[in-house]
């Protein structure tokens, strides 16, 4: 950030009065421009004993498999965002959703939130950001071709919880050092 | 947003290629400026059968009682943010935290996340944004003087769950129409 989005003046990094950390502050109109972490919302769509995955058509991790997810938009709820992304990437409708996994990724200032949901019907197709969309049994999950650790961990939690039939909300912090330890 | 924070050029609202909604796009350098919902993190600090509340020293809702909470910062986890806010507003340290309530407030594009936590010691004091900090039994909660519906609902959930001793993560959407129905 070099310029003020309100007045076009130059901004500099300084600590505003009544604050304790550096912010981008406009040298001309004194507007303080805050930066905030972003929320990524998605779904774990389930159909019987199958789960739905999308093969990414875009970078990063093109060709790898993921759960439908993306940045939450202004004016929507986390669930509305998760449903929207599921439609955009997998052309699938979900129902009976419950918040399932939450991941803090502080090194990139993102918070992931996945809803576990039932596929409303076994109908899906690749949206513009997907090369392929398919249903997988646990044994068929392409573990070595998953796009992101949050996808791997959400799937592992799910298959583990499914044995007991209890699906609590899981909350976890992932840092780059943890990624290499992901099986 | 009137000016591009990258180059200082004028921005206009238009739908970028490969997108489906209007964004602020720079007319000069074509940078797309996304706006995203913000996360508010906080704690429900518990000490024995008491809970800790802060009386707000700032607007909005000055003089009303709240749980310590505030905007999540870049580079921190939701829990680190909740701990930081608890220190800043109540000069209290917490431990044994677990994610407890999540509220979607789509009309203001905010997501609230409260951690239920144990006060590490019965030590607290008003930080710069608080007029007072105090511990309350359930019977003494100033229900009519609570600052926000998310505070009211988190406390109600807590006292309700405490009867069974089970504290699942609760997820709820609050819209302005719901506020007037809050008891």
Q: Tell me what portion of residues of chain A adopts beta-strand conformation.
A: 35-45%
The largest contact between protein chains, plus residue counts on each side, is: A-B, 42 and 42 residues
Oligomer: homodimer
CATH class of the largest domain in chain A: Alpha Beta
Shape of chain A: elongated
Quote the distance from N terminus to C terminus of chain A. 38 Å
Name the CATH superfamily classification of the largest domain in chain A.
Nucleoside Triphosphate Pyrophosphohydrolase
Structural class of chain A: alpha+beta
Q: Using the 3D structure, state the CATH architecture of the largest domain in chain A.
A: Alpha-Beta Complex
> Major sheet of chain A, described briefly?
8 strands, mixed
**Unreliable segments of 5+ consecutive residues of chain A:** none
Determine the fraction of residues in helical runs of chain A and give it as a percent range.
10-25%
- What value does the average pLDDT of chain A take? 96
**Radius of gyration of chain A (Å):** 19 Å
Count of alpha/pi helices of chain A = 3
Briefly note the CATH topology name of the largest domain in chain A: Nucleoside Triphosphate Pyrophosphohydrolase
